[in-house]
Amino acid sequence: MEFSNITANYYFLFSIVLFLIGIYxxxxxxxxxxxxxxxxxxxxxxxxxxxxxGYRVGGKAPxxxxxxxxxxxxxxxxxxxxxxxxAVSITAMLLSLIIKIYxxxxxxxxxxxxxxxx
Length: 118
What we know:
Number of strands: 0
Radius of gyration: 20 Å
Shape: elongated
Largest sheet: none
Structural class: mainly alpha
CATH class: Mainly Alpha
Distance between the termini: 53 Å
Helix content: over 70%
Order of helices and strands: HHHHH
């Protein structure tokens, strides 16, 4: 593998690094809000991976004008718009559950909640 291939596809590496940061945040922090933030970072890395897969250097919007041009693949972008809506919905649901958990247990720390439950 040449170094130029790695530098040309840096967004793939960046999405992997973002995913690892998100999973590290989810697994190592006992605070529920930080776990949701980690989940959002992981979702963002997947969005970046898909959108960068459809990107073409010098590509234009896929509007056919009759001339031969390089077009950007619109399918990943459309899929990611749906993914963003689902991600926002999941985040809203998780935050509402966290509010209920805080009202019941008085803490957002998963270790303390586990001890309270026995």
